[in-house]
């Protein structure tokens, strides 16, 4: 951390198994150059939840020296083996990612609450949509409430809480509005999400408080949905947040856009 800022690399939708090798190599190099304090990955590390895809994701993570907070995406559940999908849906993720599916990270300056929104099945023909349980919302709310005083409070989940562009952004996570209301009441500052392969950083008002909603594009997938691979570099303190989108161009990632936000205490965050 520098000047009371925590540096966070927000990465999503790597899709190993359908990833650009050039983008993967460039991402490793850029992350080592940027030297974030924490790397937050909001799901879809793999394309179909296969062992070899998780092995590639593990090798990628092992090449990075920063602390890591990782949550699953819908593609990280077995796609082909339905027995594994229904009986042990998160087994490979937990084994290869060396962590929990709802991780908690506390360090000087930030509290990050990870939420698993991926589900083995749904009452819908499209199982890619995400959902939260009420017990998840309760636990996350308690973790936000009990965060050390002065910490920036962050949630990380794969599926978006607000609508985004394109077909993949046409539906928000189940119980998302209920969750955001509870999180806002307990001091949430930033929400990090993925899934839609589109980068953005916008303010979202919940119960008269404005929260910084940060969406990551796909970092390395060949499925770019009309946007090149990208990730976010965030500098966060209790007073200021900046979100820089770094976009893959030729052989490396370069800064493309930056947004700044200031804390107003009672009303949450504002642009600037």
Radius of gyration: 17 Å
Query: What portion of residues is helical?
Result: 10-25%
CATH-defined topology: Purple Acid Phosphatase, chain A, domain 2
Spans of at least 5 consecutive residues whose pLDDT stays below 50 are none
In CATH terms, the superfamily is Metallo-dependent phosphatases
Quantity of strands, as a count: 13
Q: Tell me the name of the CATH class.
A: Alpha Beta
CATH architecture: 4-Layer Sandwich
Q: What sequence of helices (H) and strands (E) makes up the elements?
A: EHEHEHHEEHEHEEEEEEE
Please state the average pLDDT score: 91
Global morphology: globular
What would you note in describing this structure?
With 272 residues, this protein is α/β, with parallel strands linked by helices. It has a single domain (6-271), classed as Purple Acid Phosphatase, chain A, domain 2, CATH 3.60.21.10. The chain has helices spanning 21-34, 51-62, 82-87, 91-97, 134-145, 176-185, and strands spanning 6-11, 38-42, 67-71, 104-107, 110-115, 152-157, 190-193, 200-206, 209-215, 230-236, 240-249, 252-263, 269-271. It has a seven-stranded mixed β-sheet. The protein has a six-stranded mixed β-sheet with strand order 4-5-6-7-9-8. Helix 1 (21-34) links the parallel strand 1 (6-11) and strand 2. Helix 2 (51-62) runs parallel beside helix 4 and helix 5 runs parallel beside helix 6 (176-185). The longest helix is centred in the first third of the chain and has 14 residues, at 21-34. The radius of gyration is 17 Å and the shape is globular. The mean pLDDT is 91.
């Amino acid at each position: 951390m520098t000047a009371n800022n925590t540096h966070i690399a927000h990465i999503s939708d790597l899709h190993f198994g359908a990833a650009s090798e050039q983008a993967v190599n460039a991402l490793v190099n850029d992350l080592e150059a940027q030297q974030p304090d924490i790397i937050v990955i909001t799901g879809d590390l793999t394309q179909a939840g296969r062992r070899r895809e998780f092995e590639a994701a593990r090798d990628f993570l092992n090449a990075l020296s920063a602390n890591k907070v990782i949550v699953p995406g819908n593609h990280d559940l077995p796609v082909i083996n339905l027995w594994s999908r229904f009986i042990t849906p998160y087994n490979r993720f937990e084994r290869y990612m060396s962590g929990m599916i709802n991780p908690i990270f506390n360090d000087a300056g930030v509290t990050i609450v990870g939420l698993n929104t991926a589900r083995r099945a749904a009452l819908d023909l499209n199982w890619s949509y995400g959902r939260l349980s009420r017990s998840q919302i309760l636990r996350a709310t308690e973790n936000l409430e009990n965060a050390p005083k002065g910490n920036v409070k962050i949630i990380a989940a794969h599926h978006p809480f607000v609508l985004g562009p394109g077909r993949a952004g046409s539906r928000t996570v189940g119980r998302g509005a209920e969750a955001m209301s509870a999180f806002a009441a307990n001091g949430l500052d930033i929400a990090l999400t993925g899934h839609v392969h589109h980068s953005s950083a916008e303010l979202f008002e919940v119960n008269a408080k404005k929260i910084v909603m940060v969406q990551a594009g796909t970092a390395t997938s060949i499925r770019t949905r009309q946007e090149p691979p990208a990730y976010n570099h965030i500098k966060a303190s209790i007073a200021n947040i900046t979100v820089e989108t770094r976009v893959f161009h030729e052989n490396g990632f370069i800064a493309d856009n930056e947004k700044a936000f200031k804390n107003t205490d009672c009303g949450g965050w504002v642009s600037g």
